[in-house]
Amino acid sequence: MRDGTGRLRRTGDGRRPWRRVLLVALALVALQLGSLVAPAYACGCGAMVPQSGRQLSVRQETSAVRWDGHHEQIVMRLTVDGNAPQAAWIMPVPSRATVKLGDRQLFDELERLSAPVHRTRTYFWPRSGDWPLARDRSVGDGAPRPAAKPPVEVVGRERLGPFDVARLTASDPTALRDWLSRNGFQLPPALSTELRPYVDQKWEYVAIRLAPDRPGRALGGPLDPLSLSFASDRLIYPMRLSRLAKTPQTLDLYVLADHRMETASTIGGDRPETLFAGDVEHPSGPLAELTGGTGPVYLTALTQFFTRPSRITGDHELTRAADDTGFQRTWYTDELMTVGGAPLWLVTVGGALAVLLAGALGTVLAVRGRRRRRGDAQLPEPVSHSRPA
Q: Which chain regions cross the lipid bilayer (predicted)?
C-alpha cells in the first residue's frame, strides 16, 4: 500500500503486500503437491494399498502367465517406491489358488528370449555426420454363497518370506473389506464397488501383507516374485481393480501357452503391442519349472499402456491368435558402405569421374588427330622447277 507521498508502506500486520501474495501462492502449490502424492490404490494386476498417511507406488510390474487350457499360473514381480513400512495387495482369482514364492531368474530368462536382435544395415549415400556432411550424429535409435457360510471364509494362511498370505472367499465385498481391515489391511471404500463383479462370479481372493525384510524399513525396490496357481478353462488376467489407480499404468505380460496368444480387446487401454512371438524349443531352469517340462512352448510377450486407468472395462481375456507367425523386434545399426576403408560412394563417384575424364580426353585427342590428318591431306603437292638446258 502506498502513502500520500507515493512510497510503499507496511500494512497493519507489518508485512508488505507482495509477501502475502507469495504466501498464498506457496500454499496453493503445496496443496497441489499434496494431491499428487496420494496413495496409489491399484497396480497393473490387483489392488495395492499402503498404510494410512503413507505413500507407495509401483514403479514396475512384470507378470509371466502359463496356461495349458485348464490350469493357469501367474508369476508377478513388483518394484515399489514410497515411505510405507507395510502395504496390502489384493488379487482376485476365479478359483481356489495356491501361492508360493517365485524365482527371480525367471524374468531374466524371459527378457533374454524376447530381446530384440541386432542387425546392421548399410547405406550408399552419405548422411548427416558422414564426410563431407560434417555434423555430429548419434547412431541407433454369478450368485452369492449359500447363507450357511460366513460372508468371509479363510481357506488358508501362510508366511512366504516377507509376505503374510491369506487366501479368502467372500460373498459380500463390504464384509471382505471389514475383515481385511481388522487384520491390518486398510482398503478404500471404493474398492467394495470394484470387488462386486468378482463376488457375483464367485471368485476368490489372495490377500497379501507386504513388509520389508527388516522391521522399521520402508518398502522399496524389487520385491520377491509371487506365484499364484488356480484352475481356469479360460486364460484370464485380472485387471478390473486397476480402475482405482490414480496414475497411468503399464502392463508387461509374458504368456506361455501352446500357441500364440492375443488379447480379446483393449479393455480401455492402448492397443497392446507384441514384443515377441515364437517357440521356445528347450526351456530350462525356472522356465522349465513353470512350463512343466523341457518340451517346446510358445512365448508371446505383450505390453500395453493405460493412460487413464478409470476407463478400464474389465479383466483381460487372452485367446489364440489366427496363426502362430513368429515375431521379434530388430534393432538396426546403419553403416556407410565402404571398400578398402574408403566410402563406396566416393570410390564409385571418383571412378565414374575418372572414366568420364578419360573418355573426354580420348575424344579430344581423337578429334585433334583427325584434324591433323585432314590438314595434312589438304596441303598442295610441291612443284619442282627445272632450268632448260
A: 344-367
Question: Closest Cα partner for 46 from 160, 156, 170, 198?
Answer: 198
Phi-psi region of 96 (alpha: psi -120 to 50; beta: other; left: phi over 0): beta
Whether 350 is in a domain gets the answer no
Residue 137 has a pLDDT of 42
Q: Are residues 187 and 108 in the same domain?
A: yes
Three-class SS of residue 73? Answer: strand
Least confident of 86-95, 166-175, 285-294, 298-307: 166-175
**What's the rounded Cα separation, in Å, for the pair 308 and 296?**
38
Q: Are residues 245 and 105 in the same domain?
A: yes
User: Residue 145: pLDDT above 50?
Assistant: no
**Judgement on whether residues 13 and 107 belong to the same structural domain of the protein:** no
Domains in the chain, number = 2
In a domain, 283, yes or no: yes
Euclidean distance between CA atoms 296 and 198, whole angstroms: 34
Structural domain span for residue 19 = 1-36
CA 73 – CA 95 distance, rounded (Å): 12
Same domain as 8, residue 67: no
Residue located via cell numbers 575424364: 357
Strands 261-263 and 221-222: unpaired
The pLDDT tens digits of the residues spanning 104-133 come to 899 999 999 999 988 888 887 777 777 777
Same domain, 177 and 252: yes
**Residue 181: pLDDT over 50:** yes
For the chain, helix, strand, coil in percent to 5 are: 25, 35, 40
Residues 209, 137 share a domain: yes
142 is a domain residue: yes
What pLDDT score was predicted for residue 377?
65
What is the C-alpha separation between 17 and 4, in angstroms, rounded? 17
Q: What is the pTM of this model?
A: 0.70
Q: Are residues 147 and 4 in the same domain?
A: no
Burial class from Cβ neighbours inside 10 Å (0-12, 13-18, 19+) for residue 378 reads: exposed
Interval 9-53: pLDDT, tens: 444 444 455 555 444 444 433 333 333 333 444 455 677 777 667
Q: Are residues 281 and 311 in the same domain?
A: yes
